[in-house]
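Because discrete structure vocabularies remain unfamiliar, we reproduce here a specimen of the format, pairing a chain with its fold in token form:
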Amino acid sequence: MDPLVFYIGVLGNIISVLVFASPIETFWRITKSKSTEDFEPTPYVVTLLSSSLWVYYGLTKPDAFLVATVNCVGVVLETIYVVLFLLYAKPNLRAKTARLVGLLDVGLFGLVFFVTWFFMTGNLRIVAVGTICACLNIFMYGSPLLVMKTVINTRCVEYMPFFLSFFLFLNGGIWTAYAILQKDIFLGIPNGIGFIFGSAQLVIYRIFINCQESKLLRERNGEYESLQEPLARTENIEERIRHVDEV
């Protein structure tokens, strides 16, 4: 492997680990409150499937071990996130999460592995697994579009963590560069799209963080004014009493 490709791949590993770790703050909040609130399990379930398949791809294709190593970390972290959803989600959301895990992370992964391992060999197996990985990666990068829609509608960035958007942007960029050097279309297309989506999320975050700050300021001003009203009425009553005494 060319040294430049290796170093970019290592940098991609570091950034990807940060992407996988970026929801830790969110799940720490979920663990403390023992509630998943309005967070959706779909992105984490899909990312677990995607990471599992990328590990398989990285072990199948020659010189793709850097793809496998980072996604092993992804499998571990995403499994923890999904387990926390199963523990703290409301019954209907817990059932939805369990169905998704059974259908995608167990059923679909098992089917892909079985078909490609026992019925395909060599380059055909690499193409089949790479195509599936690329499609899932596009879906993984596209799943935050629902969150972006929520941010635009509510004018609130609470459910679109900044660091997740930022690291998705970096991750898409660095793996696109790696894919170009490796001439790996299966890595290049989804990560190029991820770079675009990550850029869009950062732009939306920049726009609506100001809206959220303005909203908080208005709410604080409203609270201040509501506290001042009783005080003003009290002062007015005292002034009237003094006026009566003087008369």
Remarks:
- The two ends are 98 Å apart (CA to CA).
- Residues 185-246 form the longest helix (62 residues).
- The mean pLDDT is 82.
